[in-house]
């Protein structure tokens, strides 16, 4: 007997090695939880914003009158670019120093222009900046993590469109795990895992956007309701390797995907997104494929979110809405016209 995907089952995440509990039969249960307010629309300029052009940041330094993408060193960096002490090898109280650099990337001088509201050219400039930062910091550090934390619901401190980059001497946990899983897959199957996946999923019911270069899917093993995985359909390990035309197609697919997200609940869709690429080390990294994860918290409306609590914290992630149904919902809204236009 094969699995009945309409009944409780578990799905495996080959990138993380984890599992997710899927319970499609629970979709009909009543909701009596928190109802929070959606973010209000943002003005083009906010005199109180520490990221708007010309305004003073918290540390006192003023931003220049920037006109495109603007990158600065985080005034409150989580990592310091200074040598640390010796590692502590206690089996119970183990520790090591961590060093690195943290920067903030303002996507636009316009306080109200989140990714889907940027022009393809402006999005291309954001992609170029992600690639430049990765290249520059990768020359000095073992890993470069580019990410965006968006929306008050995700704990983002400011609506001004911005992301961050944290470069570290060490490989953070997620990167180390994905490195191992992809290395094992190449050894076992002779092809990079995520290139195989892009091929396998190109015509699946989990596709949100696809063109000759890129594929956006709700992964089979997604934990968050509308989680997506953005995959290249060609072999590439890191952002700086993308050609001009691959960056242009990426700008288009990012715009379409984030437009669908915003249109789904007619709100500026909160999420944490980020790029995973090969860490910086000697030798070929053929097992790696560049990819982006989007982890949005919303479940049913602009104000009803999924909480990863209870069973999720103590056992394993669980979802009611199937990835296939979530993909259908995202496909049913426009990827071309944003609800604010
Ligand atoms: P988040 O909203 O994603 O947390 O990012 C804002 C970052 O901006 C945060 O890391 C930094 C914070 O340290 N920041 C500055 O560097 N200067 C400021 O004046 C305020 C915030
Ligand atoms: Zn601003």
Describe what you observe in this structure.
The chain has 341 residues and is an alpha+beta fold. It has six helices and twelve strands. The chain has a nine-stranded antiparallel sheet, with helices on both faces. A hairpin with a 3-residue loop joins strand 7 and strand 8 (214-217). Helix 1 (120-138) crosses helix 4 (244-265). The longest helix is centred in the C-terminal third of the chain and has 22 residues, at 244-265. The protein is globular and about 65 Å long. The termini are far apart.
Comma- or semicolon-separated keywords:
341 residues; alpha+beta; 9-stranded antiparallel β-sheet; 3-stranded mixed β-sheet; 23% helix; 18% strand; binds zinc ion
The tally of helices reads: 6
The major sheet is characterized as: 9 strands, antiparallel
- The backbone outline, from C-alpha atoms, is globular
Helix content: 10-25%
Low-confidence stretches: none
Strand arrangement within the widest β-sheet reads 3-4-6-5-10-11-9-8-7
Indicate the proportion of strand residues. 15-25%
**How many strand segments?**
12
H/E order of the elements?
A: EEEEHEEHHEEEHEEHEH
């Amino acid at each position: 007997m094969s699995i009945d995907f309409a009944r409780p089952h578990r799905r495996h995440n080959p990138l993380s090695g984890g599992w997710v509990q899927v319970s499609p039969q629970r979709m009909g249960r009543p909701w009596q939880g928190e109802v929070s307010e959606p973010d209000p629309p943002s003005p083009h300029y906010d005199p109180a914003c520490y990221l708007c052009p010309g305004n003073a940041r918290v540390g006192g330094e003023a931003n220049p009158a920037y006109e495109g993408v603007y990158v600065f060193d985080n005034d409150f960096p989580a990592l310091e670019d200074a040598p640390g002490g010796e590692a502590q090898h206690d089996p119970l109280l183990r520790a090591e120093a961590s060093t690195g650099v943290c920067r903030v990337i303002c996507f636009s001088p316009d306080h109200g222009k989140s990714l889907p509201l940027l022009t393809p050219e402006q999005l291309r400039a954001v992609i170029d900046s992600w690639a430049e930062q990765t290249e520059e910091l990768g020359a000095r550090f073992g890993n470069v993590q580019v990410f965006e934390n968006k929306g008050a619901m995700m704990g983002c401190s400011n609506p001004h469109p911005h992301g961050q980059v944290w470069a570290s001497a060490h490989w953070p946990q997620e990167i180390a795990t994905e490195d191992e899983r992809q290395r094992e897959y190449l050894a076992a199957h002779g092809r990079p895992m995520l290139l195989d996946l892009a091929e396998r999923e190109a015509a699946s019911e989990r596709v949100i956007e696809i063109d000759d270069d890129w594929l956006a899917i709700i992964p089979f093993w997604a934990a968050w309701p509308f989680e997506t995985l953005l995959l290249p359909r060609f072999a590439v390990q890191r952002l700086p390797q993308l050609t001009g035309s691959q960056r242009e197609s990426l700008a288009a697919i990012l715009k379409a995907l984030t437009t669908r997200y915003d249109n789904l609940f007619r709100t500026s869709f909160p999420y944490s997104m980020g790029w995973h690429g090969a860490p910086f080390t000697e030798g070929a990294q053929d097992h790696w494929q560049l990819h982006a994860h989007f982890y949005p918290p919303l479940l049913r409306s602009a104000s009803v979110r999924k909480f990863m609590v209870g069973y999720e914290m103590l056992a394993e992630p669980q979802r009611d809405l199937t990835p296939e149904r979530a993909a259908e919902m995202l496909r049913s809204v426009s990827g071309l016209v944003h609800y604010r236009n």
